[in-house]
Design a protein that fits this description.
Layout (H helix, E strand, L loop, with lengths): L11 H12 L5 E3 L12 E5 L2 E10 L18 H14 L6 E8 L9 H9 L2 E4 L15 E4 L7 E3 L4 E2 L4 E11 L3 H18 L5 H17 L6 E9 L18 E6 L2 E7 L11 H10 L1
């Protein structure tokens, strides 16, 4: 480690990553450190249990122009992730002796899906399914449908015929999220508003009416500071061809998850004790919270 240099401004995703590190006890880190003899500056160096780990933090932001209502739009859900892997590969080229991880946060890009199946699809090839159809004369039952990765276009697959890996310095791709936790008081407020409105109208509300009413409730509760609490969390997707494995005692907080390829299948290998508290918000709450922030 060497000379000091002016710290560049931090992006929203980098600030979120620092929140995550501090919330989970990873307090010993440096932002854009300088290494002797190396030209590149990874975003973060984290020291943990005698190990030094490097993290490159990227973010997916909304496009400048969204398709108009009713307009058809086609997109590749893997493309954004593959672009980030390609850039991280360049950054980590000089750091093959380190455990290196790519961290991606989605800050509102509707075309970026950071669920494990899409991250592994970006690494190993587009997600597909396989099954065997028996002969007409056979009494054999069809095999259960299985999810597989098609190898083509996978950023961690070098030779498709031999199945060899490349991008081995990248130990894992991490989805950095702001998880929403259950809030009984908030949920009761929404349910109470719907119940009272239905009683006034003496009928059930339509889906559109319910969403509109809940939007008003959500907006008011956000202004009052009562909404779903958010916590930063990491969903780790281990690179099966990594040169250096990510230590099992890091990125394993109470809200975190870890996924890996086990016996050729995508498998969850860790889930924090508080993962069941995470709730997927409804449409009204999601739209209003984005508007408020």
């Amino acid at each position: 480690m060497a000379s000091e240099r002016p710290a560049p401004p931090k992006t929203p995703s980098e600030l979120l990553f620092e929140r995550y590190l501090l919330a989970n006890g990873y307090a010993e880190f440096e932002f854009e450190p300088t290494f002797d003899g190396k030209a590149k500056h990874p975003d973060y160096l984290v020291r943990w249990n005698g190990c030094e780990l490097l993290f490159e933090v990227k973010e997916r932001i909304p496009p400048h122009r969204l398709p108009e209502s009713g307009q058809f739009d086609q997109f590749d859900p893997y493309r954004g992730i593959r672009d980030e892997i390609k850039q991280a590969k360049r950054k980590f080229r000089e750091f093959k002796e380190y455990c290196c991880c790519l961290v991606i946060a989605n800050l509102g890009d509707p075309k970026s899906f950071l669920e494990p199946e899409f991250i592994f699809g970006a690494m190993l090839g587009n997600l597909a399914v396989t099954f065997t159809i028996p002969d007409c004369d056979s009494r054999q039952e069809p095999q259960t449908v299985q999810s597989v990765f098609g190898r083509r276009r996978g950023k961690m697959i070098g030779s498709y015929k031999k199945g060899a890996y490349h991008n081995t310095p990248i130990s894992a791709v991490v989805a950095l999220q702001k998880a929403r936790l259950r809030n009984p008081a908030f949920e009761k407020a929404k349910a109470r508003a719907v119940h009272e409105e239905q009683r006034k109208r003496n009928r059930l509300l339509s889906v559109e009416e319910r969403v509109g009413l809940e939007s008003k409730v959500v907006t008011g509760k956000i202004m009052d500071g009562l909404t779903y609490p958010r916590v930063p969390r990491a969903v780790v997707c281990e690179n099966p061809g990594a040169r250096i494995r990510l230590p099992c005692d890091i990125l394993c907080g109470p809200f975190d998850e870890r996924w890996a390829i086990v016996d050729h299948a995508l498998t969850p290998i860790y889930a924090g004790v508080r993962v069941p508290e995470i709730v997927k918000p409804d449409v009204a709450e999601e739209l209003c919270s984005h508007a408020a922030t």
